[in-house]
Amino acid sequence: MNNIKKNPILIKILYALIIALIAITCWSLIGWLDDKLSAKIIGFILYLSLISYALYEYAKILPLPKWTRYYFALLSLISFFSPWDDTHGWFLNSNSAINIIRKQYEYQLFGIPGLGFLAQAILVLIPFLFNKNNLGIKNVWYYFISYIVVIVFTITGKSILIVNGDSPIFILILFIGPIICDTFAYFGGLLFGNKIFSRKLAPRISPNKTIEGAISGYIMTWLILFLIFYFADFRGLEHVDRNILLIVVPLTLPIVAIIGDLSFSWIKRFVKIKDFSNIIPGHGGILDRIDSVSLVCFVYLTIFIFV
């Protein structure tokens, strides 16, 4: 045990395994439990808690009063319960996941067609009206980043919740794709970093990431996802062309995962922090673990909802 405590890589691996075990258990219950109402309730609690805490962690880095942390967490609650009629109906019967999520996009907050994102923009703006620090243009950047983060996480959280019941294998792939990419990029960087290319991948954003690591992550993610898509049967996505699943997703998902990782690294760089929190030893906070996953889920769930 003492050897583990002294080795940061072993600590990282140990907690990664614990997180994976918890995530797979919850995913299995939501996707395969015979009692569908119980599965939906478990999923609702799980994903709502996850997204709420992620937004809470994000709000902690903002130059705003402490109460705004709980305010940002509350935004996920509002999103998960709207539109109320469709959310309530989804719990009580087997409404199509795709149709429910389309309504989620159309009626993002108050059931006003086309104005949901505008309403979200106003709600995100409110905490910044209480900002006593004179940050000038930087305050505008804080607001813009916050709006994007809230949109991505609230929509993604509920979309994952609903699709997890209809197509659990697809949700699993959206989860493990970025993890595979990040893992092989990490070890690829350790083994081959700076041995082929002299410059880093994005030195101003994330100084430790190497081009060799990114290439290693991309190749292995593409290969593993291609094999999974080739052999897996995706219920709930019968409306999607199989060639898109087999070719387009494995080729593009690693790129989206890397962009998501770099985007949140840029946010941390912008506010001059290393991690969003230290709740998970060796990994940082919840938001540090689901940053690239959130963008991947947002992009591909959006595509397959409207394809």
Describe the model.
With 307 residues, the chain is mainly α. The protein folds into 2 domains: 1-32 and 167-307, no CATH class; 54-151, no CATH class. Helix content is 74%, strand content 3%. It has helices spanning 2-6, 8-32, 36-60, 67-80, 84-92, 97-106, 116-128, 137-166, 168-192, 211-231, 242-271, 286-306, and strands at residues 200-202, 206-210. The chain has a two-stranded antiparallel sheet. A hairpin with a 3-residue loop joins strand 1 (200-202) and strand 2 (206-210). Helix 3 runs antiparallel to helix 4. It is globular and about 55 Å long. 38% of the residues are buried. Mean pLDDT is 80; it is low at 109-115.
Give the topology string: H per helix, E per strand: HHHHHHHHHEEHHH
Mean of the pLDDT scores?
80
The proportion of residues forming helix, as a percent range, comes to over 70%
Number of helices: 12
N- to C-terminal separation?
51 Å
How would you sum up the major sheet? Answer: 2 strands, antiparallel
Q: How many strand units?
A: 2
Spatial order of the strands forming the largest sheet: 1-2
Uncertain regions spanning at least 5 consecutive residues? 109-115
Oligomer: single chain
Query: How many domains make up the coordinates?
Result: 2
User: Which shape, going by the Cα principal axes?
Assistant: globular
User: How much strand?
Assistant: under 5%
Q: By helix and strand content, what is the structural category? A: mainly alpha
Radius of gyration: 20 Å
In short:
This protein is mostly helical and 307 residues long. It has 2 domains: 1-32 and 167-307, no CATH class; 54-151, no CATH class. The protein contains 12 helices and 2 strands, in the order αααααααααββααα.
